[in-house]
Amino acid sequence: MTLQELIKAIDQLSYQDLDLLRRHMDEREHQTRLAQNLTPEERIQRLDAAAAALREGLTEEEIADMVQAINGEYVKVAGDDQWQD
For the whole model, what pTM was predicted? Predict the structure, then answer.
């Protein structure tokens, strides 16, 4: 989706949906500003916490399977060097 397509979609939203979108955008901006003020150590702590949350509830075998899939052989797809929405 291009920015122009997004703007057209926003133009068709109801007042209620616009309010929800505005709140989402405000919260996202707030979180981004907070993240910019973090030290490198604090950023690493947040990444570690996010990784821990992803692992939560998974067995060691499931985690090993995921790591193997991530580190598996890469198959280049024709045209995958172009940006796609």
Answer: 0.42
